Amino acid sequence: MESYNDYYGITKEYLRNYQGFTLAVDSLINERRRLEGEYNDLKKPIAKYGLEPGGENELTTTEQYAEKRIAVCKEMNKLGIDITALQVKIMQLDEALKTLTDIERKIIDLRFNKRMPWCEVAAEVGYSEVGCKKRGYSIVRTLTWKLFGHRMFVKKNFHFVS
Prior knowledge:
Elements: H1 4-16, H2 18-41, H3 61-98, H4 102-113, H5 118-125, H6 129-152
Helix pairs in contact: 1-6, 2-3, 4-5, 4-6, 5-6
């Protein structure tokens, strides 16, 4: 089971990669569209049983067509799963970020999206550097609970003596 610090680190990585998630979704959608086009462009060959050359281990053109369609279909399904997973993660992050105050969102944006050092973030929001760091850590901790709180409760086995 992962510990709180693992989830805290994951939350920080999600915040750092948030913009990359949205770009990745767009890229995966484009790749899926390309595969859909390839799938639709596959031409069904006419079966000519007994006339095709080859041995018992070679596929006929009809079998090759079917195998190609299956492979493309599997790849489209994998992309669909990846797209959905990223979209869900983006939605979860959006929902968690909506619960923050404007100043908290600004701190997160400056620190994680714009990658500013704490001293610059502090100057931008009007806090001391130490105060800004503490607030930033507190915000990430709050987001961690909102994203992973249901997973962070440790289940313990209780043994009762009778």
